[in-house]
Design goal:
Number of helices: 2
Largest sheet: 4 strands, antiparallel
Helix content: 10-25%
Strand content: 25-35%
Radius of gyration: 21 Å
Order of helices and strands: HHEEEEEEE
Shape: extended
Strand order of the largest sheet: 4-3-6-7
Number of strands: 7
Distance between the termini: 55 Å
Amino acid sequence: MWKIILVIFLFIVLGSVFAYKYFGTNSEDTSQVLQTGENIIYVSEQRPASSVLVDWVSMVKGGYVVIYDDNNGKPGEIIGNSKILPEGESRNVPISLVRPTINGEFLFAMLHEDNGDGFFNPSIDILLRDQDGNIMYMIFGIDQNAPTP
């Protein structure tokens, strides 16, 4: 009888270790969670400020991260943009805004491809899309209790 109990106990322990290893989350390695295509963006919740910090962006072509106001759940006015970013991965990208953010609001971070001149122009620097043709953006919140980056 004790052998059966021991086998069941070992089965539960090994099953738990397997589940944790393959299905658990690792907060330090976000690339496994975020990497879903060629053009990727991640912006964590931010504290109210006159700038935002983009945690991670990856683009197949050089371009910009552009911050838009929320207009009833859709991108509104542009309130800031990054300097030109190279093809590939960039981390901790600071973006100055034309106005301070407000506690409780939501903003859009969108990827734009540079047309080759090295200067952001929203009328000619087109939006980047994922492999399915969807516009690459992320909605993020402003919260006075957000962790400090």
